[in-house]
Please model this.
Amino acid sequence: MIHAHSLTKRFGDRLALEGFELHVAAGEIAGLVGHNGAGKTTFARAVAGLVTLDDGTVTVAGIDVAADRRSARGQLGVAPQELALYPTATARENLELFAALHGLGRRQTRSAIGDVARALVLDEVLDGRVAQLSGGQQRRVQAATAMVHRPPVLLLDEPTVGADPVTREALLGAVRTAADDGAAVVYTTHYLPELDVLGATLAVADRGRVVARGERDELRAAADSETLDDLYRELVCAA
Amino acid sequence: MSSFATQFRHQLILVRRDPGPLLGYTLMPLLLIVVLKPMFDALGRGSGLGGAAQATSAMAVMFALFALKTVGAMLLDERTWRTWDRLRASPARAHTILLAKALPVFCVLVVQQAVLFSFTIAVYGLEPPSWGPLIGVVIAWSACILLLGTAAATLVRTPAQLSAAGDLFALATTIIGGALVPSYLLVSWLRAAGPVSPGYWGLRAYHAALSGGALARPLAMLGAFALAGVVATVAIARRKVA
Model:
């Protein structure tokens, strides 16, 4: 579903991506981990067609992002790392907008909002203005705006950062359900135990490239690490 | 409801939820007209226009220039809220997104000026010789302000920058344009600088519409300023994306 091949992106003197390689199949959750500045966010922006690559190709559901940005974006649900919602609009109004941007009609939107609100435990706050919601509720609304149109590909950039346990549980459950329904998910996080809960595969990014990729247990065994945290230290911190 | 209609409605909701600045720029000129009417009557005699026409034109130009900052702020909000990238990451076409954002703001500018002229017509008996030219100028001036505001929002990085630059620009163009003090009362070098200000041509256009004068040149100049706004927006946006 996502095929990122040899992505290279330079911002001035800084190389943000250098031969970044990642392939994620339908129904798979790929946990993308790495230091700040490892290239995770630039990768997500490249998949969404928000940065022009210096080299390499990305396809989303078989569509080359560089060749047909608009169609590729139609397959995506994106929740960026930082909160990106309309604070003076209600949660429902935010969801209606993002559903409409992805071409959902009024009836479909109503039903899709109901579904995503149930999945993310948002029913009771749908008509509250985003600015007045708690941080955890805002995080869930943000994830909901990425998921409301049921995209085949989900890019979630640290969706649980600063989230309370209820929010974390709801988000992880909704992401797992989306993958079970066939979505390919790239899940960026610094909380490695979440990847065990999600049953995710692992991709470790460092200095603009993926330095380890595979099943968590295989990578752990290969690096002789007992936990994901140990594995991460082994692969990235020692480098 | 189509995607465009939903986006349009969404932008209207955002405008409605934060009406303070636009409401202020709609009501303040009414108050100023009432307070300064005697002065405008005196000034109007010198310019060959009635006091009410002089006052309404000046206020329409001055407060639309101040509203330019608010137009810019609405667009800048998309960047400070980080929603602009989310809109760009959707499959909606860029021109549809921009149009859905701009159209409600344009409507607000038109309403601002419509309220102003309706007030002067009702209270001071202002009588435009013909409605068509006046409506045309309201539309042209609003479009010009919208496109210059878009350029300003693209240029600046923070709301504070926009506020400072917007106030300076509005005051300078209002003064140079002759909306605060009629051009014939300005010092000669300032009077000579008038045509570089969009306010000058906005005021000329309103004066022409209210006196039955020739509109072609002022409207063409407003079109040129609007075009400059578009070119500046595209150039700045391209440089930032690169």
